[in-house]
Amino acid sequence: MPIARRSILTGLGAALAMPAVMRHAALGADPIKVVGIHDASGGLDIYGKPMIACLDFAVAELNDAGGLLGRPVQLINYDPQSNIQLYTQFATEAATKDRAAVVHGGITSASREAIRPILHRYQTLYFYNTQYEGGVCDRNCFCTGSTPAQNVNKLVPYVMKTWGKKIYVVAADYNYGQITSKWITKYCHDGGGSIAAVDFFPLDVTDFGPAIQKIQAAKPDVVVSALVGGAHISFYRQWAAAGMKSRIPMASTTFGGGNESLVLSPEEGNGIVAAFSYFQEIDTPENKAFLQKFHAKLGSAAPYLGGELAMRTYVGFNLWAEGVRKAGSIDRMKVIEALETGITNEGPPGRTVIDGRTNHVTLNVYLAECADHGFKVLETYPQQPPADTAMVCNLVKDPNSNRQYVIDVKI
Predict the structure, then answer these.
(1) What is the Cα 238 distance to its own chain's centre?
(2) Interval 240-256: pLDDT, tens
(3) Among 253, 336, 341, 407, which one is most buried in terms of CB atoms within 10 A?
């Protein structure tokens, strides 16, 4: 096994948070330990690095404001290197060695389902701050990202109205892509459309030539992508190189989440439409104020915040902190009970409200078009509830639930 990369306030986190921690530690207060488990290397680091930066910033911001319950927050960052075995190892260490008050971590659903049962077993509070396919029902786990009933439900009707009703789906071959493709199919059929085909690709696939030939032969009105990770960026490059970009438009449930808009040239990325609960280009006073402070603090190290994953990490941390304040304690059950009262964050993406029935969130959803390494916001849908997970999860009636349901999508 590669040497595990573990850091306590290292790198960017150290530069941001250590002075505040030292100031508060000098007062004699024991730090509150928070663990982050995000990929700083490996195939998923395109998502992990911005998430780490936002978690570091959130901790530093809190400590600069006086800490939490009069105590500093100590952030411990682990890099699982896009390796599920390391996710498992670090979740165990966070719970047993670090005795973290909360863990913020996981990117893919596979990584979440590797660590969620461990944290549930050890009774360590867990925040999963990533857009995903829905269905997690676990009182110990709070999911702050958007789900298909919030984002796919807006994206598919938009592309059908704009470009046509025959859709070709390309998706990552694991539970996110498989389940999201069913939601794409459902919303397509609901709108009177048809699915030309659904193709799945392992996360390490980089050659999409045969797939592009199949799409050419199928002649869909639009391609909808639920591809994931650094290797899958090759699809967009090869699509443009094959001359397809000007012939068949494209939308995505994931494009931008890993700052693909920065990696691709405008000729490769412009025009792709995505749906998330946050884009850096949201034009609100709250978002502008956040970005000004974020860039002033991080300077040239500040990442571009394309899709929602990094911002959801910032919001998720602040939701947890507000739960601690309301509980007046870091005791896990007291914090859970406080969060379930409907803790709200009025942050850069707009209002986020915890739904105590599912431990998911109600949030704003935005449609945006990739434009010159950034995004242009097209439409805004305020306060979308987690209706998909609510179909299968009721933690008020069953607080001992500890599973992910595969929602029966009627297609």
Answers:
(1) 26
(2) 999 999 999 999 999 99
(3) 253
